[in-house]
Design brief:
Elements lengths: L2 H24 L4 E7 L3 E11 L5 E11 L10 E6 L4 E3 L1 E3 L2 E7 L11 E7 L2 E7 L15 H31 L4
Antiparallel strand pairs: 1-2, 2-3, 3-7, 4-5, 4-8, 6-7, 8-9
Keywords: Membrane, Signal, Transmembrane, Transmembrane helix
Protein name: YtkA-like domain-containing protein
Length: 180
């Protein structure tokens, strides 16, 4: 297989892996809006502005339940979210955290919501609440430059490795008298 094709495939694979992990990471995180603990669990709830697959504004609510006994994420729980007294929504387990995506009319609308999150699992149950209008500015979302920086760094590193290998191979051929 020609070198250029191998390098192209390696770059494409790297970009695909970075994109896959970046989108998984992007599903989590944001501003801490509630937290609490009891004998069974510690839970932190975060909110982040996002978009639905159709491009409409939404908020990603994420709960991170941790077992107090061993510090491990609780992956066998049912986690429900209730917003402003509305119907409960069950979180989907994604990489050790529970998510719900809630469509909104405008970005940031969630900052005024009352949110109740209940974790029910093998170790027990815990409910945490955030009052309507409670402050949520302490932990801003990750800046938009993070993913492009990671992708650019990975591609730069791959290019550097390819250039050094090509140079080493050319020097080796020259010293053997075979030419380049």
């Amino acid at each position: 297989m020609p070198r250029a094709r191998r390098l192209g495939r390696l770059i494409a694979l790297t970009v695909a892996l970075v994109a896959a992990f970046a989108s998984d990471a992007a599903a989590h995180g944001g501003t801490v809006i509630a937290s609490g603990e009891n004998d069974a669990y510690t839970v932190t709830v975060q909110a982040a502005d996002t978009r639905t697959p159709g491009g409409a504004p939404a908020v990603d609510l994420t709960a991170y339940p941790i077992r107090r006994a061993n510090g491990a994420p609780e992956t066998g729980a049912t986690v429900t979210f209730r917003i402003d007294g509305g119907p409960e929504q069950t979180g989907k387990l994604v990489s050790g955290a529970y998510d719900v995506i809630v469509p909104v009319e405008r970005a940031g609308e969630w900052r005024g919501w009352a949110v109740t999150v209940r974790v029910t699992g093998p170790a027990g149950a815990l409910t945490v609440r955030r009052a309507a209008g409670a402050g949520a500015e302490a932990s801003p979302d990750a800046p938009g430059w993070v993913v492009p920086t990671i992708v650019g760094s990975a591609l730069g590193a791959l290019a550097l490795v390819a250039i050094r290998r090509r140079g080493a191979r050319s020097r080796s051929r020259a010293s053997n008298g075979s030419g380049g």
